[in-house]
Amino acid sequence: MGEDDHDPLSEEGAPEARRSRGERGLLLLRLLPNLVSILGLCAGLTAIRFAITGNVNIAVLLIVLAAFLDGLDGRLARMLRSESAIGAELDSLCDFVNFGVVPAMVLWIWGLRAEASMGWIAVLIYAVCCMLRLARFNVGNREEVPKEKTGFIGVPSPAGAMLALTPIYVAHVTGYRLHEAVITFWMVVVGAMMISRLPTPSLKRVRIPASSAPFALVAAVAAVALVLTYPWVMLLLFSIFYATALAWHALRHLRRREV
Whole-angstrom Cα distance, residue 255 to residue 259? Predict the structure, then answer.
């Protein structure tokens, strides 16, 4: 047969043959969550580039963007019903780079190179703690360990990254740069909180009365506007609020254990 001679039976049989080999069609839209994860990774890696060239402001904002995309990809996967094992692994690998490696490197480039030895040790400790945190979380998901009803166990890696960058927020808001030893100690403390067994709050499980939904939406819009207008002040307030919530949860946990 020539190029213009088509065999209908072979064309009709092709889909059945592909199905028999285990091949299935994949909607392109279902790749969107993985694309969002990859975009988050690109944002994180680009943050290191800007930090090296001295533009730490953009570097921090790119890490914030990576955290936003990290919260978005999982919701997209559930909404599109495209959750998969490879998507979960991809998300975890991106989290380690974006919230374990990148914040530590940005902090070291910004404020720890003068204290090279101790600062680099803090970078290593923080990155290893983030890796252990993610590994524990992944193993818990595979083994279907019952999850806390009110929050997480240990500080999640995106929140840990936002906390670790607090010295940069302080410098922008107050004009005062903390001593290298303080920054080093703070990184180690945040790393320890990520691998701790203390319960931590989760905004995903916060419930409000249905009648308060309009007010919550207005508050969310106002919060976004404030972040865009006063990013450093809002990031510092987030760190203070979250650290206070962590202390309150830790005290509740200790009191329950004593009882």
Answer: 6
The position carrying tokens 């040790």 is 121
C-alpha span between 89 and 145 (Å, rounded)? 18
- Contact between residue 125 and residue 189 where contact means Cβ atoms under 8 Å apart: no
Average pLDDT over residues 219-237: 87
Task: Yes or no: say if 127 and 198 are a contact pair by the CB < 8 Å rule.
Answer: no
Q: Which residues pair with 160 in a beta bridge?
A: none
* Residue 206 main-chain phi, psi, to 5 deg: -75, 130
Q: Please state, rounded to an integer, the average pLDDT across all residues of the chain.
A: 80
Residues 171, 124: Cα–Cα separation, whole Å: 23
Q: List, for residues 56-71, the tens digit of each pLDDT value.
A: 999 999 999 999 888 8
Cβ-contact 87, 36 below 8 angstroms: no
Q: What is the pLDDT of residues 145-160, one digit of tens each?
A: 444 445 678 889 999 9
SS3 of 26, please? coil
